[in-house]
Design brief:
Order of helices and strands: EEEEHEEEH
Low-confidence stretches: none
Mean pLDDT: 94
Structural class: alpha+beta
Helix content: 10-25%
Distance between the termini: 32 Å
Number of strands: 7
Largest sheet: 7 strands, mixed
Number of helices: 2
Strand content: 35-45%
Radius of gyration: 14 Å
């Protein structure tokens, strides 16, 4: 089983969190709302990889004003690729608190939609289990 280190930004702007919707036909959590983020490249430093993932997935214009390491965990997940193949992965999540200076998001093809969501509205979204766990641990959501 392949191991992936995932850098995951928990991005806020004026109290709202950035959520991204996965395509229905691929990814680890198809069709669900998630945090952005992705795999660290060999030799890449943590903040460098986090900023690269933010640029690749959310565009060059989203300004991240502050980054602070927050938490980590691991899990075994099955990823579905665009060609329909699947792979079981040991995923190590490194989660960072990030403050955005604006809301100027331009998604790449890894997501089909995005939303800036106030904490009291998070339960209205079909959050994947990893994102739900993150918000529970953060104390932003209580048991659903």
């Amino acid at each position: 089983m392949r191991q992936r280190i995932i850098v995951c930004p928990l991005i806020q702007n004026q109290g709202a969190f950035l959520l991204c919707k996965m395509p229905a036909d691929r990814g680890v959590f198809p069709g669900q709302w998630a945090l952005s983020g992705g795999g660290l490249e060999p030799g890449e430093r943590l903040e460098e990889g986090l900023r690269r993932e933010i640029r690749e997935e959310l565009g060059e214009r989203l300004h991240i004003a502050a980054i602070k390491p927050w938490s980590f965990r691991d899990d075994i997940r099955t990823k579905t690729y665009a060609d329909g193949s699947t792979e079981q992965l040991h995923m190590i999540y490194l989660i960072f608190d990030c403050e955005a200076g604006n809301r100027d998001v331009t998604l790449n093809d890894e997501f089909v939609d995005h939303a800036w969501v106030e904490p009291e509205r998070l339960q209205d979204y079909d959050l994947n289990v990893a994102t739900l766990q993150t918000f529970l641990e953060k104390g932003v959501l209580t048991a659903v």
